[in-house]
C-alpha cells in the first residue's frame, strides 16, 4: 500500500511557474528570436526545474525585458514576491542583452531533446509519475510508514501530515502487529517543511497558522491514541517534530549516524508533539531544557543515555539488526501487546491530549511572530541553516 502526496514547495513552485508562464505568454511577440524560442521551451519542460531555477528564469526574464529591478521590496510576509524580488534585484545592473543571453543559455541547459514533444499545462501541479512522499508497506506482521522525500531530507509537507494520519488510522486496524516509522535516504526527517508557511490563502497568515494548529493537533493526537506498538527506526539525523514525537513511541532504534535536534528557539517556535511533557519526564527537566529551549543537538548515543532512544546500532549493521529484531517482535501475541500498551498509556492519555492542545495553541501564536517569520525567511532565502 502506498500513499502518494505532493512534492516539496509545490505551492511556491506552482506560483512561480504561473508567474514565469504568465510573463512568457505576455511577451510572445518579443523581437529577439532566440529569446522567444527559449521562452517557448520553458513551457515544454517535462520536469519541474525546481524553485531556484525558476527564480533565476524569472529574474533573467524581468531583467531582459524591463531592465534592473526598481519596484519596491515586498513585505517580509509576502514570501513568494519577496523571493522573486530578491532574485531580480540580485542581477543589479546586468545589461538587458546579457540577461537575454543568460536566459537562453539557462533554458538550453534544462532542455533535453525529448522535452520538445510534450506540453505542460500552465500552472498545473506536476506530480512525477510514481512519486510517493509517504510510502506505506505491510509485511511480516509489520506496517512500515516511510518518509520518502530523500532529496529534501524528508521534510514533512502539509499533505504528508495528512497522509501519515491516514496511514496510522489504517495501520491501527490492519492485520499487522506492530507499526514502524522510518525515513528513506540519509535523513530520518528534517521536520516541518518550512515552505508549508508560504502558501498564504485569502484569510492571510492568520488562517495558515490556525489551520496549521488544527492539523498539528490532529496529527499528534494520532500518535497519542495509536493502539499497537509503535517503533521509530531512526536511520539518520532528525530535526524538529520527528524528534519530539519520539516521546510518544514505544521504542526508538537509532543508527549511530542519527542526531536529534529540536532548535525551536532558533526558529522562533516552541515545543510540540507533547515534548514539553514527555522530554522532562524521560530525561529530567535540565536535559530537556538543553534540547527544547537551547536547541542542543544530541548524538544517537547521547539520546540513548538520556532515555529518548532505546538502542543504538552501528550504521553498517543497522538495517539488518533492527529488522531482524522487529520481525521477531511482530510474532508476539498481538492482543497481549495491545493490552500492555493500553495499560502503560491509559493513565497518561488525557494529560497528553491536554498538553497537545496547549502546545498547538501556543505554536499558532508563535507562527505569527516576527521571530518565527524571520527564521523562515532566512531559511527560504538560504541565509540560514541549522
Ligand atoms: C503554519 C504552517 C502550516 C504547517 C502545517 C502543520 C504544521 C506542523 C508543524 C509542527 C512544528 C514543527 C516544527 C519543526 O519541525 S521545526 C524543524 C524545521 N526544520 C528545519 O528547520 C530544518 C531546515 N533544514 C536545514 O536546516 C537543512 O536543510 C538541514 C540541516 C536539515 C540539511 O542541510 P544540508 O546542507 O545537508 O542539506 P540542504 O539544506 O541542502 O537540504 C537539501 C534540500 O532539502 C531542503 N530541505 C531540507 N529541510 C527542509 C525543511 N525542513 N523544509 C523545507 N526544505 C527543506 C533544502 O531546502 C534543500 O532543498 P533544495 O535542494 O531545493 O535547495
Automatic annotation (TrEMBL):
InterPro entries xrefs: Acyl-CoA-binding_prot_CS, Acyl-CoA-binding_protein, Acyl-CoA-binding_sf, ClpP/crotonase-like_dom_sf, ECH/Chromodomain_protein, Enoyl-CoA_hydra/iso, Enoyl-CoA_hydra_C, FERM/acyl-CoA-bd_prot_sf
Protein's UniProt keywords contain Acetylation: yes
Main location: mitochondrion
Domain ACB, first and last residues per copy: 31-116
Region (Disordered): 109-133
Pathway: Lipid metabolism; fatty acid beta-oxidation
Top-level taxonomic group: Eukaryota
Keyword tRNA-binding appears in the UniProt entry: no
Keywords annotated in UniProt: Acetylation, Isomerase, Mitochondrion, Peroxisome, Phosphoprotein, Transit peptide
Chain intervals with Low complexity compositional bias: 109-121
GO molecular function: delta(3)-delta(2)-enoyl-CoA isomerase activity; fatty-acyl-CoA binding
One Pfam entry name: ACBP
Reaction(s) catalysed (UniProt annotation): (3E)-tetradecenoyl-CoA = (2E)-tetradecenoyl-CoA; (3E)-nonenoyl-CoA = (2E)-nonenoyl-CoA; a (3Z)-enoyl-CoA = a 4-saturated (2E)-enoyl-CoA; (3E)-octenoyl-CoA = (2E)-octenoyl-CoA
Subcellular location: Mitochondrion; Peroxisome matrix
GO cellular component: mitochondrion; peroxisomal matrix
EC number, UniProt record: 5.3.3.8
Job of this protein: Able to isomerize both 3-cis and 3-trans double bonds into the 2-trans form in a range of enoyl-CoA species. Has a preference for 3-trans substrates.
PANTHER family membership: ENOYL-COA DELTA ISOMERASE 2 (PTHR43684:SF1), PTHR43684
Family (UniProt): In the C-terminal section; belongs to the enoyl-CoA hydratase/isomerase family.
Protein name per the record: Enoyl-CoA delta isomerase 2
Gene name as annotated: Eci2
